[in-house]
Write a structure and sequence with these properties.
This is RNA-directed DNA polymerase from mobile element jockey. The protein is mainly α and 205 residues long. The chain is built from ten helices and two strands, in the order E-E-H-H-H-H-H-H-H-H-H-H. The longest helix is centred in the first third of the chain and has 21 residues, at 26-46. It is globular, with a radius of gyration of 20 Å.
């Protein structure tokens, strides 16, 4: 281009997300985990056995946003990728307990800290994205979804139509992976007047 030989590459950083030639997200996930672990290590060195409340503030403000940036675009399909992402949160929840041999298990720490798993957070992010697109009429996103014109088992009037797909990549695209969760939401949740009310009603399910 203009006399310059373009470099051939299998992956490219685009708006903070690494996209590769196979449209898989493992390269991006590796990068995200590395960055999040580096931040977690710095926090661990800076705070010796912080309280639970301090740990939550540090994690939610500095580490979790890295793990969740642009989550609606990318999705950890492989179990190994899901487990590696979750391991970052597991390590962060250990900060208040140090090397205590009697520290609570990970599931117990989640209850103590009122933290959902990262998978549950990703599902929550998808339904919020869907709500904004369909209920708030986002013109850039509204056309991503196809509403079901009629259903004998209709739960609400914004029920999605199942999309046909041929590839795993399309199967895990946001419009497909959110299908079951969104269609099962109660009418009062989907009909929330704004995003904050929707979040509150969804979280109370």
């Amino acid at each position: 281009m203009d006399g310059v030989v373009l470099t051939r590459t299998n992956s490219q950083l685009d708006l903070g997300v690494i996209v590769n030639s196979e449209l898989t997200w493992s390269d991006h996930i590796v990068s995200v985990i590395k960055k999040a672990n580096s931040l977690g290590y710095l926090l661990q060195r800076s705070f010796i056995k912080p309280s639970v409340s301090t740990t939550l503030k540090l994690y939610k403000n500095f580490v979790r946003p890295v793990l969740e940036f642009a989550n609606n675009v990318w999705w950890p399909v492989l179990i190994g990728d899901q487990n590696r992402l979750e391991s970052v949160q597991q390590r962060m929840t250990l900060l208040p307990y140090g090397n205590d041999p009697f520290r609570p298990s990970y599931s117990e720490r989640l209850i103590i800290m009122s933290l959902p798993t990262l998978k549950d957070r990703r599902i929550r992010g998808d339904v919020i994205f869907t709500f904004k697109s369909l209920r708030l009429g986002d013109p850039l996103m509204q056309d991503l979804f196809t509403l079901c014109p009629y259903s004998r088992t209709r739960v609400h009037c914004f029920k999605l139509k199942k999309e046909n797909f041929r590839t795993t990549v399309r199967q895990h695209f946001v419009t497909n992976r959110v299908f079951d969760t969104w269609n099962k939401l109660p009418e009062e949740v989907v009909q929330s007047p704004n995003v904050n009310v929707f979040k509150s009603r969804f979280d109370s399910l």
